[in-house]
Design brief:
The complex is a heterodimer. By secondary structure, chain A is an alpha/beta fold. Chain A contains 9 helices and 9 strands. Chain A has 2 domains: 156 residues, Rossmann fold; 60 residues. The chains are: A alpha/beta, B mainly alpha.
Chain lengths: 239, 256
């Protein structure tokens, strides 16, 4: 077993937009190899947290990544125009600091169960599920230690959900990844997460699923009537 | 005015159009077609001041355009104001200011350009600056592309999209200043946008898109200079019409 060490420490993290705090006073740390699931209702600040973590938003408090840690990031969505003329291969070549040759592309595609013929296809021709996989392949290109994955259910159909999580799980093993992901879906927590961060503007809980996902914490997070099932379906309707 | 041989005019026109077209591919990627067009108007007060106080037109336009770039960039990055509105107001004001300051004849050349009146130093400046623009755009091509497709992805690999954007706007400003000789301040936006839009209709890959944008620019420049010298038209408007013609043909080849 590799020595467990913190690869991310977050202290008193606050992001403010105008006069409102989007997230406030978030504290947690992540160890190598963990799977952290960020859980919370719509508008809870999950994506804001991710954007702060990749350095995309101004914030107060501390975000400390371990030395030499590279991050792969899969955003919630990439707003592509339908007629954008760029092939999968060209898209891979946009990744900074990674030498991308035929072999790398083949491997990257097979990592996410896409045929190598996809290399020459235009990315705007891909279905949303295929695009999601492409973004994952792009994110793990160049072997980052951390993969941050934002809200997979938003663009993947129900039948595809298991596949995406299984794929991430497999990738985590083969690439030795620490996984930080956002989801609405409580059912995957017990299957994959080692740590759960419950977020609703402020931090409601952080710990192992067994410790923190008590009925009391859940109703604090989602309200009494567990509306996360609703979110799961509304996420799917983006399809 | 010592007139240059046609070959020189064709070469200068082609360089300017290639740089403009290439830049346009990225301008469309960044969805700044209209902002870019409006920005070209900012050159006008610079041009008229240059005419009044007898300094070089290119210098006058570059100063105003560079200031304009910083202005757009600051509005986009430092304030929450909607860019389109601010740009729309501010840039039409510069157009009005320019129109008020200039005399009628000057204004026609400044607005619509006249590459046939090019002199030798203009020629070298056009060729040199266009080459610099092409060089910068190719060198930063990968980073511009990623940053304009998704600023978040760019940040996740350590790029600084805001700085890249400023660089792009500055290069854009220089391209507009150079292109004013060819088509004038009013039409320069189209030199940048139309060839790229044409190329985008037919390109299957990003490299093809870039190459196509430059080539359609050059084709339009050569056609329009030849037509306008033969029939004594003003080349600027002919260029735009030629580009518009190519654009409408490209529609038939548009990807499904």
């Amino acid at each position: 077993m590799p020595k467990e060490e913190n690869i991310l420490e977050v202290r008193r993290l606050t992001v403010i937009a105008g006069e409102n705090a989007l997230i406030k006073d978030i504290n947690f740390s992540v160890r190598a190899g963990e799977t952290v699931l960020v859980l919370g209702p719509n508008g809870a600040g999950k994506t804001t947290l991710f954007k702060a973590l990749i350095g995309s938003l101004t914030h107060t408090g501390e975000i400390q990544w371990g030395e030499g840690i590279k991050i792969g990031y899969v955003p919630q969505k990439v707003d592509l125009e339908r007629d954008l003329p760029i092939t999968v291969k060209e898209f891979f070549k946009l990744k900074a600091g990674v030498k991308v040759d035929e072999e790398t592309i083949k491997e990257a595609l097979s990592d996410v169960k896409l045929d190598k013929a996809y290399a020459s296809r235009g990315i705007s021709e891909l279905s949303s599920g295929e695009l999601q996989r492409l973004l994952i392949a792009w994110a793990v290109l160049g072997h980052p230690q951390v993969l941050m994955f934002d809200e997979p259910t938003a663009s993947v159909d129900i039948a595809g959900q298991d596949t995406i999580y299984e794929m991430l799980h497999t990738l985590q093993d083969s690439h030795n990844l620490t996984l930080i992901m956002i989801s609405h879906d409580l059912s995957i927590v017990y299957r994959y997460a080692t740590q759960v961060l419950c977020l609703n503007k402020t931090q409601i809980c952080y710990g192992t699923p067994r410790e923190v996902l008590t009925p009391a914490e859940l109703s604090k997070l989602y309200g009494e009537n567990h509306t996360f099932y609703h979110h799961m379906h509304s996420g799917n309707s983006h399809e | 005015m010592n007139e240059l041989p046609l070959t020189y005019i064709l070469i200068a026109g082609s360089f300017i159009a290639a740089a403009g077209g290439l830049l346009g591919s990225f301008a469309l990627l960044r969805r700044m077609a209209l902002v870019g067009d409006a920005m070209s108007h900012v050159a006008l007060p610079g041009i008229t001041l240059a005419l009044i106080f007898h300094f070089d037109i290119l210098l006058g336009s570059i100063v105003f355009l560079v200031l304009g770039s910083f202005f757009i960039w600051a509005v986009e990055n430092k304030t929450k104001l909607p860019v389109d509105t601010v740009v729309g107001v501010f840039f039409t004001l510069s157009l009005a200011l320019g129109a008020l300051l200039a005399t009628k004849e000057e204004i026609i050349d400044a607005l619509f350009g006249n590459i046939v009146n090019l002199n030798l130093s203009d020629f070298w400046i056009a060729v040199l600056l266009s080459s610099v623009i092409v060089g910068i755009v190719i060198y930063f091509s990968r980073r511009f592309t990623l940053s304009f497709i998704s600023a978040d992805l760019a940040r996740s690999v350590g790029e600084n999209p805001a700085l890249l954007e400023l660089l792009f706007l500055l290069v854009f400003a220089i391209a507009v200043a150079v292109g004013i000789k060819l088509v004038g301040a009013l039409l320069m936006g189209s030199v940048i946008i139309i060839p790229a839009a044409t190329s985008r209709n037919i390109a299957r890959s990003f490299n093809g898109y870039l190459l196509g944008s430059a080539l359609f620019g050059v084709l339009g420049a050569v056609l329009s200079i030849l037509i306008s010298t033969s029939y004594n038209f003003s080349p600027g408007p002919v260029f735009i019409l030629a580009e518009g013609f190519l654009f409408s043909i490209s529609f038939f080849f548009r990807k499904k």
